[in-house]
Amino acid sequence: MPKVRIVLILFWMICFGESAIAKTELPSEQEISKTADKALRYLKESDFEKSLIVSRVALQQALIVKNNNLIAVSYNIIAANYNEFSEFDKAIYYYKKALSFANRTTNNILKNRINNNLGNMYCFEKKQYKKGIEFYKKSLEYSKKEKDSALVYLININITWAYFDIGEFKLALPYFNYINKHHKERFNESTIVVFNMLNGMYYSHVNDKTKANAYFIEAIKHGKIGTEKSDLLYSYIEYSKFLNKIGDYKQAYENIIKHNAVKENIYNEEKLKKAERAGFNLELDEYKRQIGKIEIEKGVQDLSLRKSRIIVLLFILTSCIFLILIVTLYKNVVFKKRTNAKLLFTNEELIKAKEQAEEASVLKTQFISTISHELRTPLYGVVGITNMLLEEHKELAKSQHLSSLKFSARYLLSLVNDILQINKIEENKVVLESLTFNISDEINMIKNSLSFLSQKNNNQIAVIIDSDIPEYLIGDKLRFAQILMNLVSNALKFTKNGEVFIIADLIKIVGKAHFIEFQVKDTGMGIAVIDQDKIFEKFVQVGRNEEDYQGTGLGLTIVKRLLGLFGSSISLESNIGEGTVFTFTIAFDYDPEKTKSIINDIQVDLTSNQKFKVLVVEDNLINQLVTRKIIEKNNYSCTVVDDGYAALEILDMESFDVVLMDINMPMMNGFETTRKIRLKGIKTPIVALTAFDKDEITEEAISAGINDIIIKPFESIKLFKIINCLIVETKNVDCDVNV
Fold first, then answer.
1. What is the CATH number of the domain that holds 260?
2. Is residue 154 part of a domain?
3. Which value, in Å, is the radius of gyration of the alpha carbons in the chain?
4. How does DSSP assign 680-713, residue by residue?
5. Which of 251, 254, 307, 733 could share a disulfide with 728, CB 3.0–4.6 Å?
6. Are residues 591 and 651 in the same domain?
7. What confidence tens digit (pLDDT) does each residue in 181-221 have?
8. Does residue 710 share a domain with residue 619?
9. Distances from the Cα of 106 to the Cαs of 60, 78, 112, 155, in angstroms?
10. 293 vs 301: CA distance, rounded Å
């Protein structure tokens, strides 16, 4: 009998459920509009808690009746509440939701107001004036469509105010002239304060002190009388700026005090706390609404199924399947009990293995980082002292011993960089960048940088570039250069008295993607077919004898891994005594607009003949000597201290144009020293001069207040370019150096 009753209830729901739902009365649009007006009234009275609660009710009702106009109005009021208690990101979010629903209507006045509100948010709260003025101008378009001169007047005021705030008085002039021309016919309580304040700001700008003072006093007078006190706040601030400008500091300070008193009265802490609670409920409703939409859709589908006679068959079939599932589930439970013990043991073993692998990976990374740092530090001294000897003693320029020393140092540095590079690729730490570059310049730069290697084996390098390849392409030029550099240097090592060709051909275009085939071809010793599968493995060197010094065997491994990041692969053709051809294809984007911007934004040489004072903080005596020589050679003044404490002491007594800071120092490292310098309020640019890998320390360097990082050993021209740039930036001159 119970089963029969359940079936009867189901049939009753099928037959009468729809009529029961239909009897639910929906709120009228007039009622919803009154609710929204009530929420707006609470907002104007600064009762944010009640305004949010009532606007939430209006929004729920508007969503039920699917009235886009009322939905937009409700979201607009909600956003205005968040605006009032300074939660600007939430305010922008709800204003944009309001605008998305308003754009589905023909209500230009509503679109105007929401665009105006977004303009207010971006200009006066987020300080993103360009974006804010775009919303204002959009608002102005809707106002003109409606021929609503009052709204046109209001938007002109806002645009004028925004331009005045960023000092663009010339751009503001057309809008400023408009509000002055139409003020007498359009002024009211909501605009009279701002109108007088803007005139005060303008005449302060043109140094008409009498008019400026009169307008500011008039603005404050009307602000005290009116109910809208936020404009009075701005009037006090701008008047204080004007008084400060003309030297009346006492009056300026008194106006700041008045501003703070009004602000405290408006933004009562208890109101804000209640509003935050109401706001939380509002956000919760947003999530509930999303779930509600899914439930409504599900209900419609269920209702359709109930009306269908097939439901009975489905019910019977479902019951049968359910019984089968229960039997199957029982058998599975029994089976799982038997196997769970084995799985648990296996899982524990896997977890241990995983932890051991992760620990090994961390230790490997730490080891490589430590070794690279420990090698780069003495290498800096070796390379620096070698260069010093060659510069100071010209008679040693042809010394084979010094040349061998310099070559060995370069080779050791290349080894360190290769090991770091392969480790980064294996740990997926390499991310391709999108940079605009000239492919011809990049290839020729590689050719020139390897000229010393080509001269060693009496080789020639030839470059052949397809004329159909665009001048400027977009892609990761640094990784591309690294691929080509490894292949060309490899070809030069295994070729004597021959030629190496760098060939680039455009093979196809798909949209913006230009697929370019590159070939590195040499006339060298060649590679045996049996060895061709091995050469891309780590630390493998083919054809090496005891008289050669052919490198680490990492170059081609790095090439293959980097090409994988580009979504490409590499192939080779070679026979013993017939040379080798490596071939790969990379798709670079081509964008003519970026090409124009590159031509228009050619970098300006930032080198300077001015003599700057440089402070070097370095504990290693050899590195002190090398760095001092490099700096003084460029006619800069150089002071060297041994540790962070000495740096803090000398900065209290002297001023410097730039500080070169070592990171790994005893007692107090470079990060901590920089933090203490910044706490003293010292703005001097600080450049980290370190042997650590840049990626390892960038985040901590930025948080400590370091302006840039240079890895030892370094090219002196790069050091001075960065120094000059940072000094120029400190003096408020635009500078753009890619380091």
1. 1.25.40
2. no
3. 37
4. TT----EEEEESS-HHHHHHHHHHHT--EEEESS
5. 733
6. no
7. 888 887 777 788 889 999 999 999 899 989 999 999 988 88
8. yes
9. 22, 22, 11, 20
10. 13
Indicate whether 461 pLDDT > 50: yes
Domain boundary among 266, 282, 316: 266
State yes or no: pLDDT of 732 exceeds 90.
no
The number of C-alpha atoms within 13 Å of 86 and in the hemisphere containing its C-beta is 9
Give the domain extent around 660: 613-730
Residue 654: CATH number of its domain: 3.40.50.2300
Query: Do 618 and 574 belong to one domain?
Result: no
**CA pseudo-torsion sign 520, 455, 479, 483:** positive
Examine the domain organization and report whether 586 and 628 are in the same domain: no
The tokens describing 14, both together, are 């099928």
389-404: pLDDT as tens digits? 666 666 666 665 665 5
Q: Is residue 450 within 8 Å of residue 485, measured between CB atoms?
A: yes
d(CA 320, CA 73): 53
pLDDT, residue 642, reads 92
Higher-scoring residue by pLDDT: 600, 468: 468
Tell me whether the omega of the peptide bond preceding residue 713 falls within 30 degrees of 0, making it cis. yes
Instruction: Mark whether 530 and 596 lie in a shared domain.
Output: yes
Number of independent structural domains in the chain: 3
DSSP states along 508-546: EEETTEEEEEEEEEE-SS---GGGTTTTTSTT--SS--T
Q: Which of 19-28, 535-544, 640-649 has the highest mean pLDDT?
A: 640-649
Q: Cα-flanking dihedrals φ and ψ of residue 444, to 5°? A: -65, -30
Contact 122, 139 (CB under 8 A): no
> Residue 641 forms beta bridges with which residues?
617
Q: pTM for the full model?
A: 0.40
Q: Domain containing 582 — which CATH number? A: 3.30.565.10
Cβ atoms 532, 580 nearer than 8 A: no
Q: What are the start-end ranges of the H helices in 393-476?
A: 400-426, 439-449, 451-456
Ranking 407-411, 495-499, 517-521 by mean pLDDT, the lowest is 407-411
In a domain, 180, yes or no: no
Segment 7-22 mean pLDDT: 38
Distance in angstroms (rounded) separating the CA atoms of residues 191 and 175:
15
Strand partners, 708: 687
Q: Which tens digit of pLDDT belongs to each residue from 341-370?
A: 777 777 777 787 777 766 665 555 555 555
pLDDT, residue 602, reads: 46
Whether 588 and 662 map to the same domain: the answer is no
- Pick from 60, 64, 58, 59: which is nearest to 21 by CA? 64
pLDDT in tens, 216-269: 998 888 888 877 777 888 888 888 989 998 988 888 888 888 888 887 777 665
Residue 500's pLDDT band (cuts 50, 70, 90): very high
Q: Is the pLDDT of residue 560 over 80?
A: yes
**Helix 189-205, helix 169-181: angle, nearest 10:** 140
Domain co-membership, 633 together with 590: no
Residue 396: DSSP 8-state: G
Contact 675, 704 (CB under 8 A): yes
Q: Is the dihedral of CA 264, 270, 273, 278 positive or negative?
A: negative
Count of Cβ atoms closer than 10 Å to residue 141 Cβ: 13
| Residue 396 belongs to a domain | no
pLDDT, tens digit, for every residue of 567-622? Answer: 888 888 888 888 899 999 999 998 877 666 655 554 444 445 567 899 999 988 88
CA angle 17, 22, 28 (to 5 degrees): 155
Domain boundary among 266, 294, 322: 266
Q: Does a structural domain hold residue 128?
A: no
Kindly state the tokens that stand for 235.
Answer: 């009037």
**According to the model, what pLDDT value does residue 99 have?**
92
Q: CB–CB of 671/659 below 8 Å? A: no
Tell me the backbone φ, ψ of residue 34, rounded to 5 degrees: -65, -40
